[in-house]
Design goal:
483 residues, alpha+beta, Butyryl-CoA Dehydrogenase, subunit A, domain 3, six-stranded mixed sheet, binds flavin-adenine dinucleotide, Acyl-CoA_oxidase, Acyl-CoA_Oxase/DH_mid-dom_sf, Acyl-coenzyme A oxidase, flavoprotein, AcylCo_DH-like_C
Length: 483
């Protein structure tokens, strides 16, 4: 471990300086801090549950499974939080991010993606069938959206679900190699079932017209039997070693005419009756798909919280080390703590300040998300969608840059695997891509802002645009001259 500031004379001097009570600050920042203590104590007092730096992917996956089961045994059930207390769920994601990011992501796949898709896209029958087993991790599952050829453009997915009216079953099929489900978390080793996103096709009511494609919908598809063997028609391959997050078992899945009952359609937004008649209260395919994706914003909120947790952890490691580390100094005097150098302060203090800002920003997002779930207010749905996209993109990009700065600030010792910054940098990198690629998310935010701008100024004279900009600039770009 990096030397803590208590370990050196300079560290002791720094420690005696501040008149700062971390307890008051923590009380102000974290009203759920008791859960943080419970989680951190679990790992602190059970060091056999801590991930070491030199594990193979198989050992790391086994460790993450053990960690997840230990949390459940401790009475911390993420699905219950995700269902009843979102604030707790997101706070847990933040706490887990500094235990092991693979654990945070594995938990996210199981509870927010697999569990969340069943709860939010399905109806009461699906909740009854799966809730307890998902919660207890007896039914590990996947969220199988991405395909080899389509990641960001999910409306173009090619996997098919065709209704066989004669047997009242969906036939799930991968039509070509580009449609193989790829990168699917929980698939390579654990997944027993998956929410599979596929094009829903039913026979046309006009018998001449063949199949009607109603676009992408979600289906529950069993993957493995109790002994862990793939079911007939299901072929799964391991995606292998990744740059990071090797405690998560990502896999590729191909379906060859797999049959599941008609009720396995997650039918909150659309139903299909026994005769194959399709109905939905949402009139267009794009509105149905938007409603489906809208239910999945929780994943992005969770990632934002996890990323803020990583930023806080990395900044703490770097600042603490820089306070204790000494290099150079005035002639015939003790060496100086590197944190006393302006160059170190210029590197680390903006990160610390931004960590506070992002803490409050993600709290705001979480509170809006809770309100949105409670009120189901359409305007709030739009706002949370946009804010979660923008904040996820901003936070994960900032944290990724911060991890490199923190590593460099700790010099050579920052490069030792045991000190975690390198692992965090590798694990966190993909936060910029999954749950929506950052560039694509920012384009969505831009689209929403431009739509709002057009609605506000449509038909208005140029002068009203000018006074809006004047007002905006006055409140957003405040310049305070140095005294
Ligand atoms: C470790 C890991 C775990 C994952 N887990 C899951 C999972 O459990 N379930 C699941 O369904 N998926 C999962 N994914 C897939 C992930 O969600 C996708 O990788 C992600 O959505 C991006 O898609 P893509 O990889 O096809 O990238 P692409 O969409 O092909 O993007 C490639 C590049 O093109 C750019 N680009 C794309 N569209 C545009 C545009 N319109 N304008 C400008 N630039 C554009 C992007 O910015 C990016 O730089 C996982 C991926 C990884 C790596």
């Amino acid at each position: 471990m990096l030397l803590s500031r208590e370990d050196t004379a300079a560290g002791a001097a720094v420690r005696s300086l501040p008149r700062f009570d971390p307890y008051i600050m923590e009380t102000y920042l974290d009203d759920l801090r008791e859960m943080k203590r419970q989680v951190y104590d679990l790992f602190k007092y059970n060091p056999e549950l801590l991930t070491g730096p030199e594990l193979s992917k198989e050992e790391h996956r086994a460790m993450v499974r053990t960690q997840l089961r230990a949390l459940l045994k401790e009475g911390i059930n993420p699905l219950t939080f995700f269902d009843r207390d979102y604030k707790k769920y997101f706070y847990l994601a933040e706490c887990l991010s500094m235990v092991d990011l693979s654990l945070m992501v594995k938990s996210g796949v199981q509870y927010s993606l697999w569990g969340g898709s069943v709860l939010n896209l399905g109806t009461e029958q699906h909740r009854r069938a799966y809730y307890d087993d998902i919660g207890a991790f007896r039914l590990p599952g996947c969220f199988a959206m991405t395909e080899l050829k389509h990641g960001s453009n999910v409306a173009a997915l090619q996997t098919e679900a065709v209704l066989d009216v004669s047997t009242d079953e969906w036939v799930i099929n991968t039509p070509d190699e580009g449609a193989i489900k790829w990168w699917i978390g929980n698939a390579a080793e654990d997944g027993k079932a998956a929410t599979v996103f596929a094009r829903l096709k039913v026979p046309s009511q006009d018998s001449q017209a063949g199949l009607v494609d109603h676009g992408v919908h979600a289906f529950v598809v069993p993957l493995r039997d109790e002994a862990g063997r793939c079911l007939p028609g299901v072929e799964i391959h391991d995606c292998g070693y990744k740059v990071g997050l090797n405690g998560v078992d990502n896999g590729a899945i191909r379906f060859s005419h797999v049959r599941v009952p008609r009720m396995n359609l997650l039918d909150r937004f659309a139903t299909v009756d026994k005769s194959g008649r399709y109905s939905s209260p949402l009139t267009s395919e794009s509105r149905r798909f938007a409603a489906t994706l809208g239910e999945l914003t929780g994943g992005r909120v969770g990632l934002t919280c996890g990323s803020v947790g990583v930023l806080k952890g990395a900044v703490t490691i770097a600042i603490r080390y820089s306070a204790g580390r000494q290099q150079f100094g005035p002639p015939d005097s003790a060496e100086v703590s590197v944190l006393d150098y302006q160059s170190t302060q210029l590197k680390l203090m903006p990160l610390l300040a931004t960590a506070y800002c992002l803490h409050f920003a993600k709290d705001h997002l979480v509170n809006l998300y809770v309100d949105m779930k409670r009120t189901k207010d359409a305007l709030l749905v739009e706002e949370v969608h946009s804010l979660s996209a923008g904040l996820k993109a901003y936070t994960t990009a900032f944290t990724q840059d911060a991890l490199s700065i923190c590593r460099e600030a700790c010099g050579g010792h920052g490069y030792a695997a045991i000190n975690r910054l390198g692992q965090l940098r590798s694990d966190h990198d993909i936060f910029q891509t999954f749950e929506g690629d950052n560039t694509v998310l920012l384009q969505q935010v831009t689209g929403t802002l431009l739509k709002g701008y057009r609605a506000r100024f449509k038909g208005a004279p140029l002068s009203s645009t000018f006074s809006y900009l004047k007002q905006y600039v006055a409140s957003e770009l405040v310049w305070t001259p140095y005294e």
